[in-house]
């Protein structure tokens, strides 16, 4: 069975500092991997996705993620955070034959301080 | 409309009441998904439609939960005899024909069962 672990429930980061959110997955084959962001009262917005190819994936809002098969990880990074990046971030995995049926992690709440 | 629309935005129900939650996907989107997001958790898959056919309902928690999409557009998630553990945000998402590998999420319906 597939599963997703986000080890950090809550992260506080200063504006302008770098951010890294961890994600580990369990899946029998190469999965489809996603990062979503959810702001209060908003729907989930796709930041980036990995299906195949280059393991370093660029997304929207200056985010990137790196797929590391050996570590079963798909960590999200941003070099310099902005106050508007405060939100909840979810990593998700989808099966290759039914990628819309996603398994989400529990999420990481990001707080940005001035 | 421009996005996935869900109504009502908020629903308060007394325990034992039946509720119906509506999802209007983006026009022309073939696939439609329902997810349940409990407080402090990531979304969990409930069910999936392709056009009017319900292809996967493995995530429905009990036989009190029922979903339909009779004309392949609007979908309704019905919960009978609501229980307190049904309190959650119910998210709808859709995918256009040809996928594009991106789920478009609505803002959700927050259900509170008292």
Structural notes for this entry:
The complex is a heterodimer of chains A (114) and B (114). Chain A has 114 residues and is mainly β. Chain A is 0% helix and 55% strand. In chain A, strand 5 and strand 6 (45-50) form a beta hairpin. The relative contact order of chain A is 0.33. By secondary structure, chain B is mainly β. Chain B is 0% helix and 51% strand. In chain B, the strands form two sheets. In chain B, strands 2, 4, 5, 6, 9, 10 and 11 form a seven-stranded mixed sheet that branches. In chain B, strands 1-3-8-7 form a four-stranded antiparallel sheet, with no helix packed on it. Classes of the chains: A mainly beta (114), B mainly beta (114). The A-B interface holds A 4, 32, 41-46, 49, 51, 90, 92, 98-107 and B 3-4, 31, 33, 35, 40-45, 48, 56, 91, 93, 95, 101-103, 105-108.
What topology emerges from the helices and strands here?
The complex is a heterodimer of chains A (114) and B (114).
Chain A: E1 3-5, E2 10-14, E3 19-21, E4 24-26, E5 32-38, E6 45-50, E7 56-58, E8 64-68, E9 73-78, E10 87-95, E11 98-104, E12 108-113
Parallel strand pairs in A: 2-12
Antiparallel strand pairs in A: 1-4, 3-9, 5-6, 5-10, 7-8, 8-9, 10-11, 10-12
Chain B: E1 5-7, E2 10-13, E3 19-24, E4 29-37, E5 44-50, E6 53-56, E7 65-68, E8 75-79, E9 88-96, E10 104-105, E11 109-113
Helix- and strand-based class of chain B? Answer: mainly beta
Spans of chain B with pLDDT under 50 lasting ≥5 residues? none
- Low-confidence segments of chain A, given as residue ranges, are none
Cα distance, first to last residue of chain A? 41 Å
What share of the residues of chain A does DSSP label as strand, in percent?
Answer: over 45%
Major interchain interface with per-chain residue totals: A-B, 22 and 23 residues
Terminal CA distance of chain B reads 33 Å
Q: Shape of chain B from CA axes?
A: globular
Number of beta-strand segments of chain A: 12
Number of helices of chain B: 0
Write down the Rg of chain A. Answer: 13 Å
Largest sheet of chain A: 6 strands, mixed
- Structural class determined from secondary elements of chain A: mainly beta
How is the biggest beta sheet of chain B arranged?
7 strands, mixed
- The helix content of chain A, as a percent range, equals under 10%
> What letter string, H or E per element, gives the SSE order of chain A?
EEEEEEEEEEEE
Strand percentage of chain B, roughly?
Answer: over 45%
What is the C-alpha radius of gyration of chain B, as a whole number of Å? Answer: 13 Å
